[in-house]
Structure formats: structure tokens, C-alpha cells
Amino acid sequence: MATKAIVLAAGKGTRMMSEANHMPKVLRQACGKPLLHYVLQALQFIPVEDTVLVAGYQKELVFEAFPAYPRAVQEPQLGTGHAVMCAREHLEHFDGTVLVCYGDMPLLKQEVYQGLLDFHAKSGASCTMLSGTCEEYLPYGRVLRDENGDFLRIVEDRDCTQEQKAIRELNVGIYAFDCQQLLESLNSLRNNNAQSEYYLTDVPEILRNKGQRVAVYTAALNEQIIGVNTPEQLAMTERFLRGEN
Q1: Burial class (CB in 10 A: 0-12, 13-18, 19+), 71
Q2: How far apart are CA 226 and CA 209, in angstroms?
Q3: Dihedral angle at the C-alpha atoms of 94, 41, 102, 172, nearest 10 degrees?
Q4: What's the CA gap between 77 and 136, in Å, rounded?
């Protein structure tokens, strides 16, 4: 099955900014290379021409750093669902699988992306989401399942009850979608939430409510799912890249 990747790389990285450094988050360096470099290296099994970078904040710097990749612009930044909407022109005439991932997760290995796509291809689902466990506390959404163990919905960390916060299965935010089902579902996204943003996390539930199958590919991912949002997470990521943890 033909595959395209949409790499979300529009973030500002506000918590990582200093007076001296206003670089886009995905261009922050870990062990001498941009965070986005490691992500694209893990995606090298997908052709460059099928790997779309969605940038926003200081987008010119991102596109200059990785000039070979197709590009989409997200301005303003209105959430992860909106970011994928901004890449619509690259998807409208595509009939295969779309992998959506993040440019600030440099530790995720190629075999995880491939495992997700292989599982999706065999599952016959319209959407397969990556979930995992991690020893570190991460403020990620929790995957809720029904009595049969099937996907029910995702609850964002900030909206979790105490009982839901105890769920160890985290939504990594990385998905494999049937392209046309994804595009149709993006039309149903609403921004009636505290941030007034369009969340990609709402798409699996939209698909499920339409009677489409949503599958979950689960793995013990630990440090691989750390997204770099703070100087502390950047330092931790560098330690893992150096093999020191």
C-alpha cells in the first residue's frame, strides 16, 4: 500500500525559548543535529517526495534546513487537526495510507513506524493509532477501551478524572489513516474546546461513530515517546541519544 507521511513541525516551542534562542522547536539541536533530522531519518523508508513537512513558526528556517521535502504552511497554529488540514493539497488525490507524526519526537525508532503501518495494513481499519507505556510521567491523552477491549475514545490529560489518570496506556499522537477517510473526517472536526483548536485526537472517535474500524497498535515504548517541550526534556533526549541512560 502506498504511504505518505505528514510531519507536524509548526510548533514554536515557547517553553524552550530564551533571549538568545528563538529557533523553531524542531530545529533545536540534540547531539549536534536538529530534532527533525532524527524523525526524518526514522522515516527514510518513505520516499522524500511523499514526506510532507507542515511548518508555521519561522517556517522559512524549517524549509531551508530540509529543502528536499514537500511543504505545507500552518498559519496560525490552530491545533493538530488544523495542521493536517493545511496539508490537504498533498492528500486530495491520494488513495493510500497517511502516517501522521511529530517533528519533536527524535527517539522514536524506524521499526515502530513500520510496525504501526504493517499492523494498519493487516487490520483493515480506517485508522490505527499508536499507543504505548512509559516509565516517565508524560501528560499525554489516555486510551479508553470498551468492555471488549476495543477502542472507545481518547481523553486528554487535562480532562482526565483521577481514575483515568491511572490508565497506563498513552496516546502517542501518531496515526496511520486511510487517506480519504481522514480527509472526510477532518470536515467534521470542531474546535469547541478550551483552546478553540482542532484536535487530531478527535478523528478516531469521529470514524468510530461513523461505523469505521479503529485499531490500536500498542508497544512498550518508554523513552521513545518523549516529545521535546522543555530544556529538561531536551537534555534527557540527548542522554538517550548518547546511550547514557
Answers
A1: middle
A2: 30
A3: 100
A4: 28
Give the whole-angstrom CA distance, residue 3 versus residue 155: 28
The grid coordinates listed for 196 are 478553540
The sign of the CA dihedral 141, 227, 9, 106 is negative
pLDDT-derived band of residue 19, with 50, 70 and 90 as boundaries? very low
- Active site members: 15
pLDDT digits (tens, 9 = 90+) for 73-97: 999 999 999 999 999 999 999 999 9
- Please state whether the peptide bond connecting residue 76 to the residue before it is cis, i.e. omega within 30 degrees of 0: yes
- Return d(Cα 229, Cα 204) in angstroms, integer: 25
CA atoms of 67 and 99, how far apart (whole Å): 20
Residue with C-alpha cell 504493517?
Answer: 118
Q: Is the pLDDT of residue 194 over 80?
A: no
Amino acid at site 47: P
Report the SS3 class of residue 187: coil
The residue among 222, 218, 217, 214 whose CA lies nearest residue 240 is 222
